[in-house]
Every structure is written in C-alpha cells, then in structure tokens.
Amino acid sequence: MASLSPPLAIDASHATVADIRANVAQRRRWDLVFAVLGLLATSIGVVTLLALFIDLVMDGYQRLTPDFFLSFPSRRASEAGILSAWVGTCLVMLVTAVVGVPLAVSAGLYLEEYAPRNWLTTVIEINVSNLAAVPSIVYGLLALGLFVYALGFGQSILSAGLTLALMIMPIIVVATREAVRAVPHTIREAAYAVGATRWQVTRDHVLPYSIPGIATGVIIGLARAIGETAPLITIGALTFIAYLPNPPLTTTPPFVNFDWLWSGFTVLPIQMFNWVSRPGTAFHANAAAAGIVIVVLTLLMNGFAIFLRYRLRKRINW
Amino acid sequence: MKGVMSNPVSVGVPSPQSGSTTQRNVKSSIRDLNFFYGDAQALKHIDMEIYEHAVTALIGPSGCGKSTLLRCFNRMHDLTPHTRYEGEIRLFPDDVNIVSPEVDPIEVRMRISMVFQKPNPFPKSIYENVAYGLRVRGVRNKTELDGRVEAALRGAALWEEVKDRLGEPGTALSGGQQQRLCIARALATDPEIVLFDEPTSALDPIATASIEDLIISMAGSVTVLIVTHNMQQAARVSTYTAFMYLGELIEYGPTNEMFTRPREQRTSDYLTGRFG
Lengths: 318, 276
Ligand SMILES: Nc1ncnc2c1ncn2[C@@H]1O[C@H](COP(=O)(O)OP(=O)(O)O)[C@@H](O)[C@H]1O
Ligand SMILES: [Mg+2]
Prior knowledge:
The complex is a heterodimer of chains A (about 325) and B (about 280).
Chain A: H1 17-60, H2 66-70, H3 83-114, H4 119-131, H5 136-150, H6 157-181, H7 185-193, H8 198-226, H9 230-234, H10 268-276, H11 284-315
Chain B: H1 3-6, E1 26-37, E2 40-51, E3 55-59, H2 66-72, E4 83-91, E5 96-97, H3 105-111, E6 112-115, H4 126-136, H5 142-155, H6 159-162, H7 175-187, E7 193-197, H8 205-218, E8 223-227, H9 231-237, E9 240-245, E10 248-254, H10 255-260, H11 265-271
Parallel strand pairs in B: 3-8, 3-9, 6-7, 7-8
Antiparallel strand pairs in B: 1-2, 1-4, 4-5, 9-10
Helix pairs in contact in B: 4-5, 4-7, 5-7, 7-8
The structure holds adenosine-5'-diphosphate (ADP) and magnesium ion (MG).
C-alpha cells in the first residue's frame, strides 16, 4: 500500500540528502552539549568525594595499625585507639538490626498485604514516608525522653540501638513495600487459587520473592545508622570510654549475657567527632583514621547491598 | 472468527451427547446471580446449570462478564475490595451456596481450582509448583506428595517432559509447558471443578492444541468451565456453551446445537462475526 509512494515526502519539495545531514548535525550538537554538561556535573560530585576521601587517607593512613584497633582512647594521641568505639558500634548495630528489621519488615508487609485500603492506611503510609525525612536529631530528642528517661534504659547501648532502630525503620518499611509491590499480582492469585490463606501467601511467596529488595533496604538503613552521631550525642553517648562492656557470649552456661545492653557506650563517629574537636592537630590524624574506617565500612555495606540485589534478583524471573 | 460459519461446528464436540440422550448430573446450579464491582453491575440475573464431568464454555464479546462469572466460582473476587455477590451458586452433591458470605472462600478454593490466562508458575521448582496446593493444606508425607505430584503431572501431560528435572525452576519451562504446569498444580488437589480463563490466549498454536486436547481428556474425571474468545476452541473442547452479552446470559445449551441452530439473534450475530 504505502510502499508505492516515495518515503519521507513531507511537502512538494523533497529534502536533499545534504539538507537532511545538515539538519541532523545541527540537532546532534545539542546532544553533545548536554552530554558534556552532564559529564561535568557528574564529575564535580565524584571528584569532590574522591578528593575528600584521598585527603582523609593521607591524613590518617599512618594511624591504621593493629594497635589502633586494639587500644582504648588515651590522652596521648599516638597511643589512642578505637577499640571501645568499634565494639560499641557493633553492639549498637546488633540491637538496631535485631529490633528494627523484624518490626519494619512486618510493618511493610502488613501495610501492603493486609491493611484495608482506607484513609487511615493512607495517613499511616504518608507518615511513614515522611518519617524517613525527619532529621535524626529529632529522633535523638524523642529517644532521650522515651528510652532514657521514661522507660529508664539510661544512656546505654540499648537506648542507642533502639534510637537508631526507630530512625532506620521508615527506610526499611519503604524498601519492603516497594519490594512487595513488585511481586506480580498473578503470583498471589495463583497461590490463593489453590486454597492458601493470606498468611501462607505472604510467608511462602510474597516475603521470599521480595527478600532481595528488603535486604537492600536493610543494609542501606544500617549503613546510614552506622554513621549517625547527632541522635546518639543527644541521648548521652560517652566520648571517652576506656573499658569494654561485658561480652554478649560467655564461656560458662548459659553462654549469653545481656549486661552489655545496659553499658555506657561510644561509637565510631562519636569517637571521631571527639578527636576532631580537640585543640591542636595531634588528634586529627586519629580522627582521619577513624573516618577511613567508617567510610570503608559504609562502602562495603553498600557494595554488599548492590551485590545482593544482582545475585538474588537473577534467581527470580517471573 | 469468520471460519466458524463456513465450517459449522459439530466437528470437535466430544462424542456421547450429540443428542440429549445421556443423563448428566448437575454439578452446580447458578440461581439469579448478580455481581457488582462497587456500584457497577457486571452480572445480571444469571441462571444456569453446570453439568458434571462435562466441559462448559463461556463465550461472548470482550467485557461481557465471562471472567467475572468464572471467578465467582472460586471466590477470587473476595480479593478485590468493594465487590458483592447476590444470589446463589449451589455446588452439589452437598448443595452448598459457594458465594454465600458464610462459606469460607478457602473452603471453596480447595474444591474448585483455577488456571489463568497467562501462565503463572511460582518461581520455585517444578515439584514445588505442583505440590503447593497440597502443602498449604498440610500434606507432609513425602511418599504421598511424590505420588500426587506425579499423578498431576501425568494428568497434565507433562510428566514425560519433566520427570528428570523436577528440581528445576518452573519458570524456566516454555510457555506451553508452564501452562500445563499450572494445570498440574490445579489438578494436584483433586478438584471437583477446574476453571480455565482463556488458558491459551498467550500461547502459540501448537501449545494451544495440546492444551485443548488436555481439556477434552480431563472431562471424563472432572467438571470443566472454560472462558474462551475463540469460537473454534469452544466448539472443539466443549459440550455445552453459554453465550453472554453485557453481563447477561443470552443463550445456553449443547455446543453443537448452539453453533448450528442458535435460538437468539444476538448469538447468531456473534457467531457469524457481526460483532464482538
Ligand atoms: N476489577 C474490576 N473493577 C471494576 N470493574 C471491572 C473489574 N473487572 C472487570 N470489570 C468490568 O466488568 C465487566 C466484565 O468484565 P470481564 O468479566 O473481565 O469481561 P470478559 O472476561 O468477558 O472480557 C467489564 O465491563 C469490566 O470493565
Ligand atoms: Mg476475561
């Protein structure tokens, strides 16, 4: 049909090949302009970040010795280390993960799979999304009133872990809901059609298929929590700790011990903050070294999140 | 669609009931069924008997309510908010009204299973796909599971193709195999009725033919209700056909009679491709 008429006949005077090429070349120029601008914008971000990190490494790398990881803070910069800080970070993260992840994943699953679609659910959903944007110091204030005083947990690892759990829950809830929503409705129908209950559909299908997305959200949340300083200062983290809490695992029955939950604590970013704020430059190398540790930890966690997303997603194709 | 009239249809109708000589039991009886999506009425005063161990086809133009009627049978609408059933679908021999709010939809789905338009296997192994309906009702015994998985896969004409790779993901099969896997999943729980909603619309002609053969062969042991927009398919697989239009049941009867001597003008218009 249309094959009989000449191609590209827009009006009576047909464009010559030269015209067309000129036209394309002209429009292509803007392609190039934007590509250059975009590259520039991207590089500014990447280069700045890289420069900061390199600066940090230059300042701090000499301090990254085994002793640095195995020493308590000290009045002498060259003897000070981050032992209590990294142990504190690990224990606080443990509480954060153990409390925050199950609560947030359950909440996300409930909102997506169970909650009736009504105005109350909508209000809750909007609020959860907004909570992710609340400044972390506000969580600190809330936690100071609630955990430290009202519940009487004091300025402890428990309070710190709960505070950070509260803070990262919205992130995990949102990630969970997105992952759950990505499970095709046809899969749910298939499961319901053979007589599964809502809980069986959730447990056997929705949850397992959304694990990659949920895990990514969990790691991103924890990576954010690891660097948090403000809310922990608010609830009274110590800045100079020369002891370790009782270890959670012991050699005598019952082999576990929960004393550490009530222990005072410091964490890596607070230790770093403390060193930065000292007068003179002696401690600045320590601060830089602690900074390297935090940045590397965060990068590792984000890298692991990306890895998980790729590996686990590949196993599931609808 | 045009081919239907030039090649009228008695062709594929399964043998015994070309006349109305065979005595058939009523498996289910639809009585004054109305169905609503919110305020919109999608089914209007449907009255219809479904015969046991026969294939009944639902045909009609797109949007006339075929899927809606089919999904009443396993209470799939209960998953959609603001839907409402009125009237009855009585299931025999025990005479239960399966759309009554007092009857748990899970109970209904344990008796009536469904195969969907697009193959929807779980991203799990072939074995787990078929076993799932048994697992949800608490079957744990490995020997029993193995036996029933094999029987279901044989029933779906898939056993020979997959018996050496039951552990592989069901999603790795071809489209036609996936749909037969879904049929096996629907058969594994020994349903009284199997519902098919345009089960071949996403498949190529060869896979379609094998599914149609399968449906014909199933009819001896199970009651089949199938929605199709393909009239040759209705003619080929079904014993009874219901023609629906705008939410109403216009005409219902033995397939060969309806395709050769439709009683209603609208049926004949639809069958000759004048609309739809
Ligand atoms: N979830 C729904 N919500 C509201 N209306 C619907 C829904 N599903 C179907 N309908 C409407 O119900 C009518 C019948 O649809 P359906 O049963 O899917 O038709 P068919 O399967 O015959 O093509 C159509 O008018 C359709 O728009
Ligand atoms: Mg339909």
